[in-house]
Amino acid sequence: MKKILFIYNPVSGKGAIRSKLSYIVENLSTMGVVTVMPTKAKGDATKFVVKNMDNFDTIICSGGDGTLNEVTTGYMKVEKERRKPCGYIPAGTVNDFATSLGISKNINKCVDQILDSSIFPYDIGEFGDRYFNYIAGFGAFTEVAYSTSQSVKNMLGKTAYILEGIKSLTKIKSANVKIVTENKTVEGNYIFGMICNTFSVGGLLKIDRDDVSLDDGKFEAIFVKKPKNPIELQETLNDTLSGKLNSKHFEYFRSSNFRIISEEPLNWTLDGEFGGKTDNVEIHNHERAIEFLRPNKG
């Protein structure tokens, strides 16, 4: 009989997971014997994965983007041939990764999806000595995810991100940045930049699904130029919210490897968590690095 490891963050997304534990464990038990491990401190999920990878056939995790990032980090610390399939039950505030894979935000439905799923090999990003699932970003809006307290996220949900995002507009700063890839070099003054593998960012910015492949070994790069006046600022916001990435206000291209150099150190976010401060970083795409369970149907 298969062995299933279920890792969950009990405080993610208003603590909703706690009331669903019985349903989750009972239904996952149809796949095999389930062992439950709740996280209690930052980094626990990474430790659980590294320590137990060889002891289980499948690992299921539940929490927000931060919990998923910890699980991913654990996977990437293990040799690729040892990595087991990974299922994800979203219980956070926005859950961009779940949106991209068609995973339901309803916990009960998500569990049902896991029981009827297929393996999907997903690209993972390496940022210096850390990893990310779907985004590494700096500038406007990116600090919102990790600067908004968990209590506010739990109380207001997605609204918390929107409110904090609006507040950040009053203190937009730009940065002189040089982006070097295997095919091109771009330099400019930007208020926002991101390297991503997703169809949605923060539940607000949408990327055309025809432009994105989650398993092709390439990331989408979006850099928003500094507006020269209030009219350009409004145009930039409109283009961002409408997903008009061919706008004159953006640099938009695709690549597998990046080196990003800035005149001053930038605060980065990785999957909604603080990713450190640096003026020089290399970002690499690990093609089809982790096999996630993706629903066979919506």
Properties at a glance:
single chain; 298 residues; alpha+beta; Rossmann fold; Tumour Suppressor Smad4; 2 domains; nine-stranded antiparallel β-sheet; four-stranded parallel β-sheet; 9 helices; 15 strands; 27% helix; phospholipid biosynthesis; lipid biosynthesis; magnesium
Characterization of this structure:
The protein is an alpha+beta fold and 298 residues long. It has two domains: 3-124 and 289-295, 3-Layer(aba) Sandwich (Rossmann fold), CATH 3.40.50; 131-286, Tumour Suppressor Smad4. It is built from nine helices and 15 strands. It has helices at residues 21-28, 44-52, 65-76, 96-101, 107-115, 144-147, 150-156, 158-168, 230-242, and strands at 3-8, 33-38, 58-63, 86-90, 117-127, 130-132, 135-139, 175-181, 185-196, 200-201, 205-206, 219-225, 250-255, 257-270, 273-295. Strands 5, 6, 7, 8, 9, 12, 13, 14 and 15 form a nine-stranded antiparallel beta sheet that branches. The chain is elongated, with a radius of gyration of 19 Å. GO terms for molecular function: ATP binding; ATP-dependent diacylglycerol kinase activity; metal ion binding. Its cofactor is Mg(2+). InterPro entries: ATP-NAD_kinase_N, Diacylglycerol/lipid_kinase, Diacylglycerol_kinase_cat_dom, Lipid_Phosphate_FormReg, NAD/diacylglycerol_kinase_sf.
Question: What is the CATH level 1 assignment of the largest domain?
Answer: Mainly Beta
Q: Give the tally of β-strands.
A: 15
The CATH architecture of the largest domain is Sandwich
CATH topology of the largest domain: Tumour Suppressor Smad4
Organism: Ruminococcus bovis
Family: Belongs to the diacylglycerol/lipid kinase family.
Pfam family, one: DAGK_cat
Domain DAGKc: 1-131
